[in-house]
Amino acid sequence: MGRYPKPLEELIYLLRQLPGIGKKSATRFALFLVREENGITERLAKALLELKRRIRLCPICLNVTEDIPCHVCSDPSRERGIVCVVETPEDEMAIEDAGIFKGRYHILHGVLSPIDNMGPEDLHIGKLLERIEKENIKELILATNPTPEGEATANYIAELLKGKGIKITRIASGIPMGGDIKYMDPVTLKQSFENRKSAIP
Asked: Would 73 be classed as within a structural domain?
């Protein structure tokens, strides 16, 4: 028998599946939800159900969205010839919040990482190649994070598109090696986009 009643044990177990949540944090959150009396537990349960019911991936850029297509892909004022490739929806949100890019996006939902068993087939690279075939894309900005995995992913995509007649650029090193786009300040992100360079030697 577990230390806590079964429903509480189950909640602790589920919370521990979230990124960055350990056993102590999961237990603290679960006990808070048991004790709270302001309706947060019920609202959280409803929000989670609504999340699964209403939020999905945009069929074009693969960002999380309630609308199909998402607000960026459906915005006629966005520059359609430039696509920025990022690892996660959080990276896209950071770039949008900085107000430095007026094109469209493609979200990979990960990076190449043999340790995590993430290969090209686990990312949305195939969908990116389909978009390039169908859409009039003139420039692809590779905005993966400056980590070994992010660099490997950017190099892999650049090699795939070599000789295809598309301008392929890489965001500049205003972002430090090992950094993470979603944690960068707007000024650093702006410099990275303005000083981007060719991704193909």
From this structure: yes
